[in-house]
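User: For a reading group we're discussing how well predicted structures match intuition. Take Cobyric acid synthase. Before you show the prediction, I'll give you the sequence so everyone sees exactly what went in.
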Amino acid sequence: MAKVIMIQGTMSGAGKSLLTAGLCRILKEDGLRVAPFKSQNMALNSYITAEGLEMGRAQVVQAEAAGTEPSVLMNPILLKPTTDTGSQVIVMGKVLGNMSAREYFAYKRKLVPVILEAYRKLADQYDVIVVEGAGSPAEINLKENDIVNMGLARMLEAPVLLAGDIDRGGVFAQLYGTAALLEEEERARIKGLVINKFRGDKTILEPGIAMLEEKTRIPVVGVVPMIQADIEEEDSISERLREDGEKAKLGILDIAVIRLPRISNYTDMAPLESRPCAGVRYVSGARQLKEPDLVILPGSKNTMEDLRWLRMSGLEASILKLAGKGVPVFGICGGYQMMGEELEDPCGVEAGGSMRGMGLLPMRTVFGRSKVTTRTEGQTEQLEGFWQALSGRSYEGYEIHMGDTETSPELAEVQVMARRGDRVLGICRGNAAGTYIHGIFDSREMSDAILEKLAAAKGITLEAVGEGTDFRTYKESQYRLLAKELRASLDMEAVYRIIGEGL
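Assistant: Thanks. Here is the predicted 3D structure of Cobyric acid synthase, as structure tokens, for the group to look at:
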């Protein structure tokens, strides 16, 4: 049976996911077989495994850092918010149904056997399991029947590292207050405190650390700096999604991604963000849009509601105006559905009823109760005209969507970009294109094709701006950087002792 260590935080955004990924990479570098585990994740960024099962992308990132294949065993429960008070509940990679927050709170204890079975299967395969909590263990209104923080630590007999975020201020109050609100048995599980996201001279913290250790009787095992490694973040707290369009990373090419209220899988843009020539910015208002070189409509957990927001905010009119002037528009999944002529929801899966689409692509989407979750790979079709540069490019990705889209590929102006058997996965018309394939830009061939097309329109080449490494190589370099920074700031002897001793 594997050894275990658990990372909990004083709040959402304290850095649990990044610390878990970094610890996974350190243990891998030290020759151990290691896997991440998060019993319940709430996120709109998800991933489809080789078996066609859905899991949170945070655990995929951690699995990549650990050098192992992602598995739904690492994230047995995924909650995908559909409204402010409800979520789609996914158990072991398959949709269980939609529940309100109150319904799920009453139901979740029934999932304990599923969680424990998933964990046991992982523990049989690995030397160490690094478990991530969610939010804070001191949410006293949610502690009853907890399955993700101290309740899970008790079930797994896991020692805990508690991390606080000094960047948002009040880290000593965070750590002390969290420990103080816990029951004595829960507090005893915390074997080390971590001050995370520190900027400045560590010696200034020493008096506070000494007092914190005295009051909590728990050692501080690390002061972790604000690590600059470019690692995917949890979607709800991603800094890149909060950035004003004026402050976003600038590059020679200006790529505007529409920041939908229910944006999902914005990680599709990560390969573009990693390229020096691409200035990717997230736009949530018509004034921010301006005249970019490319507009991307990303995925959405509720396509119809987000299209209604796009219309009311004035962004739809601005995008259509840009498209009319020749600016390319590219949609992925929900964004692709929005670009069609009509959306229908006879079963009330989303907003219900029917809705006019943006009219950029000649297609119609009907939402049913079944969900498509599958991996896909292949080559794009031979294209002509505006998107000719995408012809014959290899891709590998996955589909996650409700709704079937019907198009008319026999129309003269429509070109099929990708297909899987008889199913059309993407089409083009003029300067508009869209696809159901998440991860479409992960392929160097595909991202090169898009960027080369945009660069050529500006009279430059990618070689002229020093474009280099592919995305997989880039990600590996960031995992190594994360591990190096974390190894230097954590007392790894203490961490290994905690892992070895357990409770």
